[in-house]
Amino acid sequence: MFSDDKIANELQETFKNRFKSINDLIYIRAPGRVNLIGEHTDYNNGFVFPAAVNLEIYGIACKRDDSVIQVYSEDFQELKNFDVIQEIKKEDSWIDYIKGVINELKDIGEIKYGADIVFKSTLPIGSGLSSSAAFEFANALLFSDINSIKISRKELALLCQRAENNFIKVNCGIMDQFAVGLCREGSALFLDTMSLEYEIVDLNMSAHKMIIGNTGKPRTLADSAYNTRRKECESALSILKKNNDQIGSLRDVDIDMLRENKGLFEENIYKRAEHVVEENKRVLDSIVFLKEKDLENFGKLMIRSHESLRDLYEVSCRELDLMVEEALSIDGVVGSRMTGAGFGGCTISLIKENSVDMFIDKVGSNYEKGTGLKPEFYVVDAVNGAEIIRKGE
Ligand code: GLA
Predict the structure, then answer these.
(1) In this model, does residue 345 exceed pLDDT 90?
(2) How confident is the model at residue 298 (pLDDT cuts 50, 70, 90)?
(3) Residues with Cβ within 6 A of ligand 1?
(4) What integer pLDDT is reported at residue 223 of this predicted model?
(5) Which residues make Cβ contacts (< 8 Å) with residue 181, sequence separation at least 6?
(6) What is the CB-side half-sphere exposure of residue 331 using CA atoms within 13 A?
(7) Among residues 288, 96, 253, 251, which one has the least CA distance to residue 173?
(8) What is the pTM of this model?
């Protein structure tokens, strides 16, 4: 079942108290993701390199004979329900992620059966580690299984992205849902977001660890700023397309081509495009370094990526910058950057194993002194993508 017995026991207990029936239980696990490099490239048909991490959403479910979904969230301490065969209305709550997924599943198959479910998460919610994608994927796996809809993981990732775009109305790319569904243990996933071809790349971390730093800064305005950046990238693309109709996306542009056309751009639009073009190149280079077990150079590209997100794409913030700066002052840190959409949320650092305690101590106290916010740190491993497990397996 779950690797963590304590969570399994707790969830079973809650399930028994809430829903009585404990026969034919289905266990669900969906991890969060950390993106190692390749930020704000996915909606530009570019490259990304995320890993799924052992901060996860866990669920226990039991199929019902009718079409009602009843869900208890341990994290929100709240019970919600709806009927899948009735019209599905948004209610601006966490249940919307399940509703969005059910809506999309209804488009590809017959959804007749609901379930009783309890969820609990070790993945911090709304901190830029893809808690929403994990929740969507967990439910997409569960309800496709319960309703005997055969669908590949790739298709499920796309379906969850559609749920987020169409129902939640966040115009995200494909990275998060893909990572949550398809990543593998000990590895990160090198994804070409245009073809959706991917390669599982061994992280070769030997004596290093991944440490996530949660700034504790709420990601306010993140969604609207995210949509603005998308529009800015579209403007950059349309300028370049006027001169060259072979260009389908910013992924087809290299830095020389961009520089030649610099005079056509407003300054901020140019900066956005420059970030995307260089970030794609950094992903390709970083994969080569990682395969050569060259973590030092991989880390340098992470640092360049952060600088570019801060100065060109302008999606960092004082808190993320300070945490990265403090991280880089620790001996044994090979790379550090903001991860995810930005405007708050988390950083990811690669660090020699024996420097981890010092990192948490020093970065933690200096960050708190500088911001007044209490950070959290998670030393994480790369794990397998989401799965459902039936009792006895
Ligand atoms: C969010 C989105 C992703 C991606 C990142 C930025 O996590 O959901 O699709 O665009 O931001 O790289």
Answers:
(1) yes
(2) very high
(3) 39-40, 42-43, 172-173, 175-176, 340-341
(4) 77
(5) 137, 153, 154, 156, 157, 160, 385, 386
(6) 2
(7) 251
(8) 0.96
CB 347 within 8 A of CB 98: no
Specify the pLDDT at position 392: 55
What type of residue is 360? I
Phi, psi of 30 (to 5 degrees): -140, 125
Instruction: Name the token pair of 217.
Output: 């800064």
Sorted by sequence, the CB contacts under 8 Å of residue 123 that are 6+ apart come out as: 31, 32, 55, 56, 57, 129, 131, 134
Where in the sequence numbering do the catalytic residues fall?
A: 176
Ligand 1 atom with the shortest distance to the CA of 174: 9
CB 36 within 8 A of CB 335: no
Residue 5 pLDDT > 90, yes or no? Answer: no
Which of 34, 35, 42, 129 best tests ligand 1's pocket when mutated (most atoms within 8 Å of CB)?
Answer: 42
Per-residue pLDDT, 337: 98
State yes or no: pLDDT of 391 exceeds 70: no
Of all protein residues, the one whose alpha carbon is nearest to atom 11 of ligand 1 is 341
Beta pairing partners, 58: 29, 120
